[in-house]
Specification:
Helix content: 10-25%
Number of strands: 4
Radius of gyration: 23 Å
Shape: globular
Distance between the termini: 19 Å
Number of helices: 4
Largest sheet: 4 strands, antiparallel
Oligomer: single chain
Structural class: alpha+beta
Length: about 160
């Protein structure tokens, strides 16, 4: 996968996961000598605020991408399988079932085995994030979109 596609995928994954993005720092103006004041004391959290446990982190899910020939950006989607299939993936239940059958191993996905032509129009797919809490970073190039569908089934049908 080209660096640009990887950066776009990482930015979209961070956006989908709700991670803060890096914002450029803005320098604050320096106070004039005649308007200098003592700094205000920092706010101290109330007792009950300080003892409140943080909300548990949501599972990240898998960010799936499909890129066309020469790694042009085509599409990407977020898939959550735990605790139940969810997310914007149009076939989330079938995709999660296929991942469960393959025990999260993208190279063992149960495809549909449809016959394909020998046309060479490569597509590259990737899966980044976590499946059932296990970190996943995988990508592979298929000779054409038919081979991709025949090999991976519902996972990359979005």
């Amino acid at each position: 996968m080209h660096r640009t596609a990887a950066l776009v995928a990482a930015a979209l994954l961070a956006s989908a996961a709700g991670l803060p993005s890096a914002a450029p720092a803005v320098a604050s103006p320096t106070p004039h000598a005649d308007s200098a004041r003592a700094p205000e004391p920092a706010a101290v959290p109330a007792e009950d605020e300080a003892d409140t446990p943080e909300e548990p982190e949501k599972p990240r899910g898998l960010f799936l991408t499909v890129s066309g020939s020469e790694n042009t950006w085509i599409r990407g989607v977020l898939l959550h399988c735990a605790p139940e299939p969810a997310g914007p993936h149009p076939r989330a239940a079938a995709a999660c079932a296929a991942l469960d059958e393959a025990q999260g191993d993208m190279d063992r996905l149960p495809g549909d085995g449809a016959p394909c032509t020998k046309q060479y129009d490569p597509v590259t797919v990737s899966a980044t994030g976590a499946w059932r809490g296990r970190p996943t970073a995988w990508h592979k190039t298929y000779p054409n979109a038919c081979e991709l569908a025949a090999t991976t089934g519902a996972v990359f049908r979005f």
